[in-house]
């Protein structure tokens, strides 16, 4: 088959000699297009255009007029991308796909690119002297879920402390600096606990990530910045874990209040002994990850340890106790009407921050999922203690109008606030078939319907913890969307041409202030809205 494909590609006419054809069938269509600069419309030559066909893309290179072509393209829907040094692609996800019908050529596919931006600057020490070998990293704040190289970059400072991060897409970036070098240790600092190290420093000069200031990258421009690399004292913790679960390989990990991994961990000795080094001052939750082989299959189990580690000096002889896993039980009931097929539902126990202000995203605080029995009962096994949310899901389209009305413990509703998992936890889950619904049409500035746009609902502040209230739906070919089974309350509804951002971030709505539609829903309400699509990269700062 590979030989046949190679022979067919060799027979393509010279008019398409600059391309790789994605198919040997002569009945395939021709896909033509051009790559131009936005704004301005100037053609971009030598741009690499890719047509994604399975794991190996087919490529074409634009000529002096910015034109490209693919021959013998079989029917189907393909993703198209373009790259050129010094430029970034600006076409949205909707425009980055091309549908090919049998016997019908695709002409004048237009791919837009704009000049990339650059972040330049210097990294200095506390005396104002340049530091060599510092790794400076820029991560796009508007596209944290994107895997595209244009949304992040890093460079190492030279002997003058200078760095230059190029080929960045326009938008705000978080810039940080790290160094493995050892700063000077004075005699005075050596007398104290711990040691002095260079801390990961965020622009404009803070070790607190939440206090960082974003750097705005403009298309085609260089953004100069300079900041100092800060030092901090780090500490050492030694001790033992007692009350460990069944024998197996164990590793101790620490997470911060925000759920970020603070330590790469320590292998436990045979007596549960551990050593952790280079820890920043702060409060940490210790967790033990054990790896066993049940029936020849690897299995991982996470156990929380008590007490929390409060660190502002070296700690020696710390004793950590494994907290027992908890069985969380519960049962569903309807607010009114007949019961649905309970077996079509599932429940997920999601850990939240200790101050119940955010959902953890730590890889060591994984949600626990369970099915629901035919009588509406469920059990969530091996649940760690601590604050959690319960989220209800369904595998049936017949239950799309249903919503979670309440999750109660001893008559107290904890649906939004979350609850402490502890021995004996029993949840009374009430659902309703009378969910609200939002539907409508998404159009562009000309009033034309937009297919494949992403419609998003964001709940009011008091419900922001609940992941089940963030609904997404794609518009159909006529730009229409429908979002059933919504909880009562207020929502901000937005439509995006290309949604790449993390919409659960507190600053997300602020970026699109004035672009959303506010919808207030009561139980069973049906509301229609007309949405204007938000073009790619149009968020305001």
Task: Round the Cα radius of gyration to an integer and report it.
Answer: 28 Å
Show unreliable segments: 1-26, 144-148, 354-364
Mean pLDDT: 84
CATH top level label of the largest domain = Mainly Beta
Give structural attributes.
Immunoglobulin-like; 5 domains; mainly beta; single chain; 541 residues; 48% strand; five-stranded antiparallel β-sheet; Protocatechuate 3,4-Dioxygenase, subunit A; disordered N terminus
Overview of the molecule:
The strands form nine sheets. Strands 14, 18, 19, 20, 21, 22, 23, 24 and 25 form a nine-stranded mixed beta sheet that branches. Strand 2 (48-52) and strand 3 form a beta hairpin. The chain has three helices and 41 strands. With 541 residues, the protein is mainly β. The chain folds into five domains: 2-114, Immunoglobulins (Immunoglobulin-like), CATH 2.60.40; 117-229, Sandwich (Protocatechuate 3,4-Dioxygenase, subunit A); 234-322, Immunoglobulin-like (Sandwich); 326-432, Immunoglobulin-like; 436-532, Immunoglobulin-like (Sandwich), CATH 2.60.40. The longest helix has 9 residues, at 2-10. It is 3% helix and 48% strand. The chain is globular, with a radius of gyration of 28 Å. The two termini are 53 Å apart.
């Amino acid at each position: 088959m590979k030989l046949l494909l190679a022979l067919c590609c060799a027979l393509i006419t010279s008019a398409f000699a600059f391309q790789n054809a994605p198919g040997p069938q002569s009945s395939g269509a021709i896909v033509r297009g051009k790559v131009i600069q936005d704004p301005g419309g100037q053609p971009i030559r030598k741009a690499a255009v890719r047509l994604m066909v399975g794991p190996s893309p087919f490529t074409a290179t634009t000529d002096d007029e910015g034109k490209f072509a693919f021959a013998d393209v079989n029917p189907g829907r393909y993703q198209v991308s373009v790259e050129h040094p010094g430029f970034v692609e600006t076409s949205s996800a909707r425009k980055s796909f091309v549908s090919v019908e049998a016997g019908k050529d695709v002409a004048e596919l237009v791919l837009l690119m704009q000049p990339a931006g650059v972040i330049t600057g210097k990294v200095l020490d506390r005396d104002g002297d340049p530091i060599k070998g510092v790794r400076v990293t820029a991560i796009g704040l508007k596209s944290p879920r994107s895997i595209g190289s244009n949304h992040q970059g890093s460079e190492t400072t030279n002997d003058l402390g200078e760095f230059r991060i190029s080929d960045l897409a326009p938008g705000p970036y978080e810039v940080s600096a790290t160094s493995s070098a050892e700063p000077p240790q004075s005699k005075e600092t050596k007398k104290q606990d711990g040691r002095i190290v260079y801390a990961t420093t965020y622009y404009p000069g803070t070790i607190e990530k939440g206090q960082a200031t974003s750097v705005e990258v403009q298309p085609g421009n260089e953004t100069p910045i300079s900041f100092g690399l800060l030092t901090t004292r780090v500490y050492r913790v030694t001790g033992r874990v007692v009350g460990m679960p069944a024998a197996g390989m164990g590793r101790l990990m620490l997470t911060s209040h925000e759920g970020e991994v603070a330590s790469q961990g320590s292998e436990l000795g045979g007596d549960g002994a551990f050593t952790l080094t280079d820890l920043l001052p702060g409060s940490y939750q210790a967790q033990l990850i054990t790896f066993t082989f049940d029936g020849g299959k690897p299995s991982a189990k996470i156990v929380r340890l008590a007490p929390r580690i409060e660190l502002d000096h070296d700690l020696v002889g710390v004793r950590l106790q494994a907290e027992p896993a908890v069985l969380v039980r519960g049962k569903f009931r309807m607010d009114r009407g007949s019961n649905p097929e309970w077996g079509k539902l599932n429940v997920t126990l999601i850990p939240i921050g200790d101050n119940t202000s955010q959902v953890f995203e730590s890889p060591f605080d994984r949600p626990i999922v369970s099915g629901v029995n035919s009588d509406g009962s469920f059990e969530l096994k091996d649940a760690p203690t601590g604050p959690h949310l319960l989220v209800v899901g369904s595998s049936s389209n017949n239950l799309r109008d249903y919503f979670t009305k309440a999750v109660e413990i001893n008559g107290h509703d904890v649906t939004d606030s979350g609850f402490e998992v502890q021995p004996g936890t029993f949840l009374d889950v009430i659902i309703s078939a009378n969910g609200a619904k939002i539907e409508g049409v998404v159009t562009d500035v000309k009033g034309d319907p937009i297919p494949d746009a992403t419609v998003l609902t964001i709940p009011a502040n008091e419900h922001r913890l609940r992941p089940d209230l963030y609904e997404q739906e794609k518009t159909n070919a006529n730009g229409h969307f429908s979002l059933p089974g919504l909880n009562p309350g207020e929502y901000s509804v937005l439509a995006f041409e290309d949604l790449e951002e993390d919409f659960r971030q507190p600053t997300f709505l602020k970026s699109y202030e004035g672009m959303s539609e506010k919808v207030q829903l009561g139980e069973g309400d049906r509301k229609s809205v007309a949405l204007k699509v938000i073009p790619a990269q149009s968020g305001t700062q």
